[in-house]
Amino acid sequence: MKPRDHSRLLSVLADEYTRRSPRSAAINKDALRVLVDGGSHSIRLLRPFPPRIREARGAFVTDEDGHRILDFWQGHHANILGHNPEEITNPLSEGFTRGFGLQSGFTDALQVHAAELLCARTGAERVRFTTSGSLATMYAIMLARAATSREKVLKVGGGWHGAQPWGLVGVDYHTDTMHNFEQAESRGLPEGVADQVLVARFNDIGMLEDQFRKHGKSIACFILEPFMASAGSLPASLAFLGAARDLTRKHGTLLIFDEVIAGFRFCAGGTSRVTAIQPDLATFAKIIGGGMPVAAVAGTAQVMELAGRGGGVRFSGGTYSCHPASMLASVAMMRHLVDHENEIYPALATLGEEARRTVERALRDGGLPARCTGDGNDALPGSSMGSVHFPYDQSRPFDSPEQTRNPEVCDVVLSDTVLQLALLLEDVFVMHGLGSISTAHTTQDVSRLGDACLKAARRITALS
Ligand SMILES: Cc1ncc(COP(=O)(O)O)c(C=O)c1O
Question: Is 431 in the pocket of ligand 1 (CB under 6 A)?
Answer without folding.
Answer: no
